[in-house]
Amino acid sequence: MVNTALKLKEIELPENASSEKLTVVEGNRQPPACFLAAKAKLKNRTTPQSIFNNLTQTQRNIIIYAAGGFKAKDCNKSFEEFSSDQCIKIQKAIVELGAIKTQFSDANILQMARFTAGKPTDIHDDTFQTSTDYLLTDLKPEPY
């Protein structure tokens, strides 16, 4: 494989081609309004306020409970209504919940069957019902 830079060195410019370098054009150019609107929408999606306000009620309840020191009515508040101390508690709770989730996922035990092994449950779980033991042996599964 030939290096592209070496190939470019070998190419000769035609006689009428300009070999001048690019120059900076002075001025104040404004991006189109549609670009600015799209950028504003994307920026708003990546703030703690927008993410928290778009959580389901159950997710908010979990975070508020994990943060501690909140009342039940605080679960219905938007992020902007919390004080800075409360926002710090929420941030710490989210970090802690993330660390807990990481521990379970690193251990590869987030499957529902691992949590309900040997216990009766009313929740339908296909992974608990399915046996894959026949994959570990040379035996073929018996026909029904």
What does this structure look like?
The chain has a domain of 78 residues. It is 47% helix and 0% strand. The radius of gyration is 29 Å and the shape is elongated. The protein starts with a helix and ends in a 15-residue tail after the last helix.
Keyphrases for this structure?
single chain; 144 residues; mainly alpha; 47% helix; elongated
In summary, what is this structure?
This protein is mostly helical. It has a domain at 32-109.
| Helix share bin | 40-55%
Largest sheet: none
Q: Mean pLDDT, as a whole number?
A: 77
- In whole angstroms, the N-to-C terminal distance is 59 Å
- The H/E string reads HHHHHHH
SS class: mainly alpha
**Can you count the helices?**
7
How much of the sequence lies in strands comes to under 5%
Set down the secondary structure blueprint.
Layout: H1 4-10, H2 33-45, H3 48-53, H4 57-67, H5 84-106, H6 112-115, H7 126-129
Helix pairs in contact: 4-5
